[in-house]
Amino acid sequence: MVESYLSEEFHVPSKHPSEEALRKWRKAVSLVKNHRRRFRHVADLDNRVIHQDRFSKIKENLRVGFLTMRAAIRFMDGMPCIKSELVMQIIIQKIQRFPTSTIIQIKLASMVQNYSMLILRGLGGVNGVAEAVEVNIDEGVKSTELTTRQEAYGVNKYTEKPSKSFFMFVWDALHDLTLIILIVCAVVSIGVGLATEGFPDGIYDGLGILLSILLVVTVIAVNDYRQSLQFRDLDKDKKKIICHVTRDGFRKKVFIYDLVVGDVVHLSIGDQVPADGIFISGYSLLIDESSLTGESEAVHIDEKKPFLLGGTKVQDGSAKMLVAAVGMRTKWGKLMETLSGEGETETPLQVKLNGVATIIGKIGLMFAVLTFVVLTVRLLVEKTTRNEFSSWTSSDALTMLDYFATAVTIIVVAVPEGLPLAVTLSLAFAMKKLMDDKALVRHLSACETMGSSTCICTDKTGTLTTNHMVVDKIWASGKTKGAKEPSELPENVSTTLFQCIFECTGSEVVKDANGQTSVLGTPTESAIVEYGLLLGGDFGTVRSEIKLLKMEPFNSKKKIMSVITALPGGQIRAFCKGASEIVLEMCDKIIDDSGEPVQMSKEKAKFITNVINDFADNALRTLCLAYIDLHEFDMQKDIPGRGYTLIAVVGIKDPLRPGVKKAVETCLAAGISVRMVTGDNINTARAIAKECGILTESGVAIEGPDFRNRSSEEQSELASRIQVMARSSPTDKLELVNRLRHLSEVVAVTGDETNDAPALHESDIGFAMGIAGTEVAKEQADVIVMDDDFATIVKVAKWGRAVYLNIQKFVQFQLTVNIVALMINFVLACITGSAPLTAVQLLWVNLIMDTLDALALATEPPKYGLMNRPPVKQTESFITTMWRNIIGQIVYQMAVLFVLNFAGKPILNLQGDNATAILNTFIFNTFVFCQVFNEVNSRDIDKINIFCGMLSSWIFIAVMVSTVGFQIIIVEFLGTFASTVPLDWEMWLLSIAIGFVGMPITVVLKCIPVEKSAVKQHHDGYEILPAGLEHV
């Protein structure tokens, strides 16, 4: 019944929840002590709507403005030269009235945003702008000028909502309605006490409550403030985007926040344009401005349309850009300002525990009201029996106030505000630890969802392999040779090979400040360029002799890269490089043993295919290089796709990452299937998959086109058995993800390219690569793997499971304390007429339960054996076998406390005037120590060995020591305020012993068999062991 209520009212999907679902659970939360604190870490939907409306209006204004400006540009281009020159002269005269810094700050930003070619021409084009901002385009900005430029032209950051101070968290904690009521009660108690008992005796009860509230508020504020600092640091890490610039004459990597006006930025496919700028040079640059204007059609950028806007994405091509405006002087900066401070969408576990807290809170409120009613009725009955009903004294008023304070305090304890906040605490802790493990979690829900993942669709290159590529073998001019063997190619073949290697590439050979030569570019292209240098080729000479006319960069859809060049003699030649079988189909000639081009016969094509397969079977990545000579070429047309001459077949070695095989084994043992989805040749993919343990005898290896061309029914049937998908396109990956999700799999996907964004978006958890990944992929991802290592993904899965388990442990502990505190106070109030635990004591118990133990149990690191159990289903009941432990502990604790309350004096041999005070103190002390040892019991719900890894959890140890230490202080030194008296050492030992007995009782409870969910069978046929050493 409880689970069905939670599923109906408190359920949101882990990704892309609707606003209706988000509002539905908020309405269902009917009892909240502190609205500001409870909902601090969930999205402010009303504020989000306002910001999104503002964002949409700004985007619409930008879209209309840009369309108008482009129309105006076309109109101005058609104006007579005299009028255009006249306009430019007027603009130049106006500009000359301003100081240089003002020109840069106002005019450059306006020029880019208004697409003003007239101003650009008036300034002398991009070179004139570079001169105006005092930068050499070839050398870039000097590092010594960065501070000066930031002061003059601004910083590349947008205005963000300021972070909250510690005192704001204190103020938030004081908004707890029950604490406010208790403060009022305490003040009234002090006032009445002073009037009846005088100073200082009359202030002790009220002052005790105020001091307890001060302690509770301080601890809560400190805990929340530390948590906010963690989130602030993580938020900074999320926004760290790296871009390539030329500075001091060398190409460097810098964070976009360090960019300044005058920087020369290098852009490539998938990059985010980091600031407003002007096109310097480049090829086939296609910009997606939809994030800024909402226009879906990409814009071609070249010398005629040279303006680039910050926040847009590079869809295709490459270029160099001169930064003209940064930060809040860009439209993107102003847009980002409207989106700051919305809050992150809540996770499913946060929502579910809000539901649990609501149910318990309603029960607690009912018991609190009943307790107050029972105590009040008893008082009225007693006064009636003594014929004092019409006579009321200040003492009676204090008694009624005490009853009311006790009832309110029961609500304090009963409404578990710490439950949903514990999820946030646990996730924040896990995110911080994962950051140390090279995983940047962008969305809270991803860490939680990864604990339920059943499948990982992973790339090969850079994730399973090192991405440190080197050419291992090459076939050229009829011979296959190792990369380290001396080249014996004819001179004309060597020349053509060097031309293809050094021209048909996006890599660059550069020297650093120390004079060391290095190759910048993708690992595949860098490997080929490095091989060309190894053969004795001169990158600079080839580049200077040959003029590059047009480039079509490599992308995952075409799987080839092509260029058009003009050779020194004027000959037009196209070069092509890419996936071996695709380039081979484009060739109708081949360079033979003598170094001359000959026709590609069927026998020769079959021979080359065998060479490719032989390379692939040895786990080498294969590429073909080819060329075609052209008589003429129309630059408006595409580069030819047929008639090429094959130069060489290259086999590139990319070894497996150390530990990846073990990581795959860990996934399989944890019930997580691993599927390789790669663009490589199927033979290469098979070899790598077998080497790392992904491909089994019964597994299916298939090519993307084959999967794509099958019917929907065949795709669904095949999806669960696929272990390798080779030559796949981003569309194939997306289709596989959707098929698996329809089969109720919780799918994690890795991606690094721009075209991977849809699959990352649609998956349950998207992983983007931090090194090889584009900014477009990272923006759509839930987690960024900073070291691109598959083993890091496994760590995220482990921490995801740890978060879920830690919250279960905290729930088990808190429910036990809640129910025992409620029942003891209610039952004894009904029987004896007084609650055994006072308001101050209950506030201390609440502090232990809601804050300290949340910190202890919700931040425990993953335990050994956590990855030897199947994933937790997202639909599975959250409160599982813990009911066995909760009921057992409740029965034991209530039995002990009832016995002590009714028969404690004779059992403990207590006599004298202070016997009642000693007994009440002993009951309070015993109750606290029962919770201390129950906290240790809660470290594991099923296993008997609860001490495993305890010493490695320093937070848990610190909380335990602090709890015991402060309990000693309360009992021994703060009796006046806490209604306690000092206990002798025998009483202390007995309290500890009674609490300790709960541990062997829990051992017995864990031996009671309970029904467990069926174990999932892996795709390779074996099952997880249902028991083992990890279950001891």
Overall structural class, as computed from helix and strand content, comes to alpha+beta
- Strand-residue proportion: 5-15%
The oligomeric state of the chains shown is: single chain
Task: Kindly report how far apart the N and C termini lie.
Answer: 32 Å
What is the general shape?
A: elongated
Number of helices: 37
Poorly predicted spans: 80-99, 1013-1032
Helix content: 40-55%
- Roughly how many Å is the radius of gyration? 36 Å
The biggest beta sheet reads: 9 strands, mixed
Number of strands: 26
Structure notes:
With 1032 residues, this protein is α+β, with helices and mostly antiparallel strands. Helix content is 52%, strand content 15%. The protein has 37 helices and 26 strands. The strands form four sheets. Strands 10, 11, 14, 15, 16, 17, 18, 19 and 20 form a nine-stranded mixed beta sheet that branches. An eight-stranded mixed beta sheet has the order 8-26-25-24-9-21-23-22, sandwiched between helices. Strand 15 (560-566) and strand 16 form a beta hairpin. Helix 31 runs antiparallel to helix 32. Residues 122-194 form the Cation-transporting P-type ATPase N-terminal domain. It is found in: Membrane. Its EC number is 7.2.2.10. It catalyses: Ca(2+)(in) + ATP + H2O = Ca(2+)(out) + ADP + phosphate + H(+).
Which terms would index this structure?
disordered C terminus, nine-stranded mixed beta sheet, alpha+beta, elongated, 1032 residues, eight-stranded mixed beta sheet
List the helices and strands and how they pair.
Elements: H1 2-9, H2 19-28, H3 35-38, H4 45-77, H5 81-95, H6 100-113, H7 117-122, H8 125-132, H9 146-153, H10 166-173, H11 177-196, H12 204-238, E1 242-247, E2 250-255, E3 264-267, E4 276-288, H13 290-293, E5 299-301, E6 307-308, E7 313-325, H14 331-339, H15 348-385, H16 394-414, H17 418-436, E8 439-441, H18 444-450, E9 455-458, E10 470-476, E11 479-482, H19 491-503, E12 508-511, E13 517-520, H20 523-534, H21 539-545, E14 547-552, E15 560-566, E16 572-579, H22 580-586, E17 587-591, E18 597-599, H23 602-617, E19 620-630, E20 644-653, H24 660-669, E21 673-677, H25 682-692, E22 700-703, H26 704-708, H27 712-719, E23 722-726, H28 730-742, E24 747-751, H29 757-762, E25 765-769, H30 775-780, E26 783-785, H31 790-832, H32 839-857, H33 882-908, H34 915-937, H35 954-973, H36 975-978, H37 985-1006
Parallel strand pairs: 9-21, 9-24, 17-20, 21-23, 22-23, 24-25, 25-26
Antiparallel strand pairs: 1-2, 1-3, 3-7, 4-5, 4-6, 4-7, 8-26, 10-11, 10-20, 12-13, 14-15, 15-16, 16-19, 17-18, 19-20
Helix pairs in contact: 4-14, 10-12, 11-12, 11-16, 12-17, 12-32, 15-16, 15-17, 15-31, 16-32, 17-31, 17-32, 18-31, 23-25, 31-32, 31-33, 32-35, 33-34, 33-37, 34-35, 34-37
GO molecular function: ATP binding; ATP hydrolysis activity; calmodulin binding; metal ion binding; P-type calcium transporter activity
GO cellular component, one term: plasma membrane
Keywords: ATP-binding, Calcium, Calcium transport, Calmodulin-binding, Ion transport, Magnesium, Membrane, Metal-binding, Nucleotide-binding, Translocase, Transmembrane, Transmembrane helix, Transport
